[in-house]
Structure formats: C-alpha cells, structure tokens
Specification:
eight-stranded mixed sheet; TIM Barrel; five-stranded parallel sheet; 16 helices; Urease, subunit C, domain 1; binds zinc ion; 18% strand; single chain
Amino acid sequence: MSIRPGIAFGACALLFSAAAALSHELPAAGQDPLAAQAKADQAKAAAASRILFEDVRIFDGVSSELSPPSSVLVQGNIIRKVSRDKIPADGARVINGGGRTLMPGLIDMHWHSMFVGVPVAAAMTQDVGYLNIVAGTEARKTLMRGFTTVRDLGGAVFSLKQAVDQGVIPGPRIYPSGAMISVTSGHGDFRSMQDLPRAQGVPASRHDIAGDSAIADSPDEVRLRTREQLMHGATQIKLTAGGGVSSPHSPLDVVTFTEPEVRAAVEAATNWGTYVAVHAYTPAAIQQAIKAGVLCIEHGSLMDEETAQMMGKAGIWLSTQPFPDALADAFPKGSDQWEKAQEVFAGTDRTYQLAIKYKLKTAFGTDILFSSALAEQQGKILASLTRWYTPAQTLIMATGTNAQLLKLSGLRNPYRGELGVLREGALADLLLVDGDPLQDISLIGDPDKNFLLIMKDGVIFKDKAAAP
Ligand SMILES: [Zn+2]
C-alpha cells in the first residue's frame, strides 16, 4: 500500500487547525459551547410553549391558605399570569386541575447529591465515574419526589449540575458548594493515619483531588480552597466548623477552624458576592462562626439559649433537619459514628424549640447520606416537621422561606428569577397535588401517588394530570 503524504499532511493540518480553533475558544467554567447551544435550543422551545392550568387552588409558597379556584398560565419557563378569572387558552395546552392544588416545587437546603445513593464505603472508595452515574439516577428520583431545587452542601457535584442544566439527565436545580472545606482531623477528613503527614499546600487525598472535601490548615489554605470552589461555580461555600457524625476523627464537642481561618473563607466568598455556611452543632462552634461573618449555620443541633439569642439578633440563618432515627442506621450499631448520631438527634427537638422561641430564620433540609432507600423518605421527613409547625408553616418553609436563603448567593445565583413561590413572573417550578396538603400534609410523603404533575423550568417531567 502506498503512502500518500499529501493527504496525511492535509489531515494533520486540519487536525492542527481544528485544535487551534478549539484551544482558541476554550470555554471558561460554565460557558461550554455545547451547553450554550443546548440552553439556546431549550430557551427557544420553552419560549414557544404555553401551558394553561385551569381550576386549580393555589398554595403560593407564602400564604397559609389556598386560593379560590384559579387559572395559571405558564409561558416558556415563567409563570406569566395568575387569575381567578378564566385566561384565554390562545393555543396553550390546557390542563384541567379539577380543583386540585397547584404549588411551587419543593426545595431541600441541605443535600449531598454525590453521596445520597451510595453506602459510605462506596463513597469513600469508588471511582468518580461510577459515583456520577449513581448520582445521576438519584437526581432524577429527587426531581420525581417534587424537589425541584437542592442546595448541595458538599461533594464534587459540578459535572452533575452541568448535565442536569443542559437537559442531559432530569434532576433538580442544584446550588453547589463543591468540596466541603475542613481542617486536618475535622469533619470531612476521611483519611487514614497512613496518609499522614502532608505538607501545606499539597492536596491531602483522592477526596481532595476529586473535589468532595478539601483539607485546609491556615487562613491562606482556606482562601485557596475557597477560591477553587468559586472558580468551579460554587454558589456558596461550606466549611465544617466543628466535629461531625460521619467522619472518623472529629469528636462532636470540638471547634475545628480558628476564627481567622473562617474569616478568610468569609472574605473570599463575600468578595465573590456570596456567603459561607458552616456545619456546626455546639455553641462554641456556632458562636465563633458568627463572629467570623458566617451567615448560615447548618444543623445547630446542640445549641443553647445564648447562641439562639445571638443568632436571632444577628439575623443568622439556621438550616436544620428533623433527622429520622433511621439515618443513624447508616453506621454500624454501637460504632463511634452511631453513638455520635444518637447525641446529635437527641438535640433536634430543643433546636426547633429554640428556633421558634427566638424567631430564627429557619430553613428546611434533609442531609440524607449513604442511603437511596432513606432518600425515598425525603417528603416524609419534610412532613415530620409538623411535630413543631403547622402544615402551612412546614410547606412555606420548604418553598418560599428556603428560596429567601438561596438569594444570599446574590449574582452567583445560576438560575435567574424567583423560586419557591407561585406568582406572576416567578420561575415555573410547579407541582399538581391530588388533594390539599395544607389539610393533609402526609400527601407530600407519597409523591409517586399524589404528585400528578411535576414541572421544572416550564418543562413537564411527570404528567399524570390527565388520568389521575
Ligand atoms: Zn451535610
């Protein structure tokens, strides 16, 4: 066979010029040309779509009563019109709600997309490709439970978010933190003693490199790791300010970062237009975080009166969870982690009492880890808030109130528009519920049966409205 150098050279030249063109147009984070095209296509299709809900009673995410029978017109990804009078269909697809409830999609403010579907051992050892595929499956299930938005508080979630936002796979809107930032030995340090010591500035482990958690042991390292997450597109920064349940080396009572270290993260995040949330159970860890400028406390399960008062005065958010006892079963009974879970869960009631007493700005999340079966309980866990709140207060927390906390991301918010409310101009994330969840909150616990229609960003992902 003869060699034809001309063609070979031509092909090479083509390759080179293609490579040159590509490298010339190398996208910045979040500006992938494929994503841009997909987004443009979606926007075009969505803008043309008009969906009219008739005869629905509205829970709007703010008010504790359902509206009288109403009509809601969705155009593209926006709720265009809400009216008690009939809205002309004008070619829109008409969905007769039959007097059922139309409400905003639910929001989970403490979620770990990358860890929800795998046992703890798999999360620590499996390849990132496998973990992403499992997370993709879980993302679809999350959306099918009516959770149209999650705030992700730790994990290498940026690729998953990109795939969901491009429409590659169904899933909720994701507000990513990226790696949760911890100190050596803190909550999020899953290394073994064989991994010690490390030099400053060097990634600690494969978790560091994968972007699940990041170890930082000085203000400079905290700044660096914070900025790395922001570069990836983090909408907020997550630090672990005290000991935790699932991590092997951190006792519950310890304060992990120093105040200057937390402040370094707060400065970097604030300069970037966003905020820091910290994992903290104890008064000492919470109080130090507040002094350093943190705006949101995750869990707060062991807090006291003084700390609650301080949070109330400073207007600090409490993002806490009614942990189901089954969550402790992710750990071997009698193990260190299991013991720690018992201690933290015992504080849940007191924390909600304090939140109510001091009128804390309180957000709802579940923090489900390492169990797909438990994740199926996401709606039931939300409904369990009625131990402390009315059904209306519960649903307002998981929609309109949670959305207020999302706004702390400022211009780093990846989804322009209002979430968590059903009103004209808001983003069209909607659930059609077969019944009145303000009367019967348990409806939320069985989304498969009771959510007849699930819409996110104007796109219908579940449609049983015609044949309930
Ligand atoms: Zn968490």
